[in-house]
Amino acid sequence: MTTLRQLLSAKTDEQLKYYILNVDKHTIESVSIALEILRTRNVSLPDDIDQQIEDSINLKNKSSYDSLAGWNEQIVNDANAPEYYSQRAIYTFSILFSVLFGAVMLAVNLKNTHKAWGWPILFGLIFTAGAIFLGTVIGHTSTGIALVINAAGVAVMYQLFWNKQIGKETKYRAKPIWIPLIVGLLMMVPIIYFTVYA
């Protein structure tokens, strides 16, 4: 199997420079290897390139943390605040089970606010059917690809329904996830059974 180092070694100096000048678009490992290869080739680099890369990595890590932490900023303990399944919970269940599963959780939130709750479920049905169809056309999709597809689906779902109907800045109490968790685990039992014993 071709290693990352072998792949990067085959690239030109300019292609490798792109890695170290665009840290936000690559893994830290790729950037480190690209820098190392450029140095072994004696390519001229800025004197402060190590500091530039470190600053870019720190900024990348902070942005990633802030985007996840932002989900928790709207959660409060105020008894008067509405109770919703949190964005983090919906995201996690959508990734682990399906976008349709997360869509149902989001629909429950919308129903509690007396807003049209059928649209997220329709979106979840269409998206999940599309993902299944894509899987049959491709023939085989890895778990990694399925996770990426689900992540994209839930991101679109947030834009269409959470941000527009609940509100990005709405404060709320986090609803316990025991019921979706139990339902999700019960759904997995027959799938695991047929995978192992079929």
Structural class: mainly alpha
Molecular shape:
extended
The largest pleated sheet is described as: 2 strands, parallel
Question: How large a portion of the residues is in β-strands, by DSSP E?
Answer: under 5%
Helix content: over 70%
Count of individual helical segments? 9
Overall structural domain count: 2
**Could you tell me the number of beta strands?**
2
- Terminal Cα span: 32 Å
The quaternary organization reads as single chain
Low-confidence stretches: none
Which sequence of strands runs across the widest sheet?
1-2
**From the alpha-carbon coordinates, what is the Rg to the nearest angstrom?**
22 Å
Average pLDDT value? 80
Order of helices and strands: HHHHEHHHHEH
What does this structure look like?
The protein is mostly helical. The chain has two domains: 4-69, no CATH class; 74-197, no CATH class. Helices cover 72% and strands 2% of the residues. The protein has nine helices and two strands, in the order H-H-H-H-E-H-H-H-H-E-H. A two-stranded parallel ribbon has the order 1-2. The model has no long low-confidence stretch (mean pLDDT 80).
List keywords for this structure.
198 residues, two-stranded parallel ribbon
